[in-house]
Amino acid sequence: MRKTDDKPVTLNSVPHAELAPAKINLALHVTGRRADGYHLLDSLVVFAELGDRITVTPSNENRFHVDGPFAGDVPLDSGNLVLRARDALRAAYPRHAAQPVSISLEKNLPVASGIGGGSSDAAATLRALKRIWRVPIDTTALADLALPLGADLPMCLAGRPLLARGIGERLEAVEHFPALHLVLVNPSLAVETPSVFRALASRDNPALVPLDTADTVLDWLAATRNDLEPPATAIEPSIAEVLAALRRSGAAFARMSGSGATCFGIFDSAAAASRAAVAISGEHPGWFSAATVTRT
Predict the structure, then answer these.
(1) Out of 138, 152, 204, 268, which one is annotated catalytic?
(2) pTM for the complete prediction?
(3) Domain of 24: which CATH number?
(4) Is 23 designated active site?
């Protein structure tokens, strides 16, 4: 007689959608490198209301569909992090995840652009599948399962302001961090992260200064860096043009995010950010430019 515990768990029949928000490294210090080649980081990370969207629907067979302005740049095979995330959760919880699902990705963010698009998509997939499949996994265990897929996955699962250390897996929530009005600009060029790390002049740099030592976020940011910005700019000089455009448009602060090439500018209001995004798009119609606000 078949045991009850061996039966597949009934699927949640309601489709579930999740935002996969853009991840912005407000500051990123490279503080060392492990023996296995992974770099040690010290980063303040925030997430935007702008992002991709994942929708998971019960289905009679596994499907994966991509649409949106950057759909053409997304691989549809097993190299895609969305599918790898699905398969990792299914392998860990086969009884809960036996039934097929259809996954739809609305790709609104440029790929390979330093704002965590693929990692955020995979994190959103895990959150959606956890609900659809009714997987009994807590936040910590889900982050542990996600980490082998990529160092950014645990922070993208959290999706809130945080300090990330180690290779990105040691997370500390930043409470009461203010919402920031941002403009994200990418020169429509992908920069390969391994190339940027290989071009680093120094891998043993000072860590971030404590947040509570500054009067304002802008004061604190002025005392920080993105150590990947100089090597990325050397590889792709248009990053400097993007930063200059943000500053001309009135940004109180501008910096590259992650390993690039997307840069962000901080503005004092949503209206100012919107005007700047429109102006930059007018001057550079081939660039990606969008106003957003960070999640608190």
Answers:
(1) 152
(2) 0.93
(3) 3.30.230.10
(4) yes
